[in-house]
Amino acid sequence: MTKTTTLSFAQQLLLMEAVDEMAAHVRDRVAAGDTAMQDTLDEIETVQALIEAGTIQTTTTRTPKEAA
To answer: How many domains does the chain contain in total?
Structure first.
């Protein structure tokens, strides 16, 4: 089962702000020497670019529990 939801402008802004905060936190950890977080930072920055471009689409699937 696939469900599509279109976010309102306010919801898009909230999502962008949340991802920006997460990126800042992870960026600070990388700058402090936690190099293991670099891959996470790269992924977050990829998601940020997709959100800003308006080209992100997520698909949720049912969990095994829901399928039973």
So the answer is: 1
Residue type at 47? V
Q: Could you give the CA distance from residue 37 to residue 26 in angstroms, rounded to a whole number? A: 7
Higher per-residue pLDDT: 37 or 64 = 37
CB 23 within 8 A of CB 45: yes
Q: Is the pTM of this model over 0.85?
A: no
Distance between CA atoms of residues 12 and 24, nearest Å: 18
Token reading at 58: 């997520």
Can you give the residue range of the structural domain that contains 26? 9-67
Task: Dig out the tokens for 47 from the structure.
Answer: 């998601």
